[in-house]
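Duplicate of earlier report; PADI1 deiminase input re-posted below.
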Amino acid sequence: MPQRHVVQMSTSHASYAVCVLGTEVFLDTHRCTPKAAVSFDVYATSAVTVHIIHNPTTKPMMNSRWPLDPDIEIVVTIDVTSTAINDNKVKISYYGQEDNELSVAWLYLTCVDVSLDVDLNRNGRVKSRGKDKAKWTWGPDGQGAVLLVNCDRDSPGAVGTDSEQVDIRTTADLQDMSVMLLRTQGPSAIFAEYQVVLHITESDADKVRVFHALRDDSHPRYKPVLGPDKLSYVLDHVGSGENIFYVEGLAFPDVGFSGLVSFSASLLEVPHQVCAPSPTKSPELEFSTTTPRCISPLQNAPGTPIFTDTVVFRVAPWIMTPNTQQPLEVFVCSIQQGSDSNEAFLEGLRALLKKANCKLTVCSEVETRSDRWIQDELEFGYVEAPHKTFPVVFDSPRNRGLKDFAFKKILGPDFGYVTRESPGKEVTSLDSFGNLDVSPPVTVRGKEYPLGRILIGSPLPW
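Output:
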């Protein structure tokens, strides 16, 4: 639930506040209402919309004033960003029993826009100011951005996967990441007094990493700003414009992780000395240029959140491909030693795959360390997002002669790698991927499984 932005009104001095485009600002008038007042009215400049929230039995008076009622709330919204500081004004006048004006409360408002945006509609484009950005739903009519685990190796000279690197070494790596935009608009002087902070929860921080795209002397630079050891990031030199962030996944959905990750951008009011002129009672809602009043803040006081915008990504799962799909590449082990040589089999396979126009990769005995059971060692699948799809090999925990083959020979640009180890248990034959398969697309009891269903072997007897 979004926080409620409340501004304390006063009849002894003007109030000043910053609001975000389209959000509600509640005016707290309980402390400033004169004891002798029986009614009030509210006027504002043209960009401000005033909402009076009241009990159905409470009605405005004949002179358009409202009776004082403890249940009445005054809420204002602004749908146009400010071009100058304090260019929106609200005036609340209080009246006594004789219709005489007892006092006036003034509010100066500066409206800014802060919007954190992602590919909400999953069409490859980042939409500005989407609705329900903190929700993620499945299906072709659903919404919510998709994030890929950056488990391939585009970075030259890298030892492991790109997700294990804390920097970006090639622009090709950016194509595996999802774009997140932080858009801000408003008077630049306001952002010198208010902080814009990008942040993530501690429980999500080890699942993702975020890079901020910066330019130094016309050269792009990608600064890691959120991730396993960084929960928040304060933006410098914020003004009207866009800040581009690239987001990569570090962990696949698994036991204890649904795949959902949230990011938030907050506008914080930083305590500082405020100097403000005293108001006049001009019906044109203007202020005189009198001697400023200065209010000093408490030392080391934390920033006050004014507004928070939240977006949600879902990390794309590893999807296993059925063997009924058109093959692109076939991996086979070569056994040349002894009576178990498979040379005749390889010759027949070469001829068949040549007709099928399919690539054949023969793994030598040196590479496999005489382990011929490649089906037990690995399975092929893929990850997919609107902006990118690439294959991912899943390495089993059996860890025999082929245990390093997938990592050393298959992992590379646009070919990912993932593995799992048995948690605290001895590896058995059931951990071999000969016991893991997937059906073709199937319908069971009226329910469609367009990606098939995972099939898992079990020990005898059944």
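Residues 287-292, 294-300 have pLDDT under 50 and may be disordered.

Merging into the original ticket.
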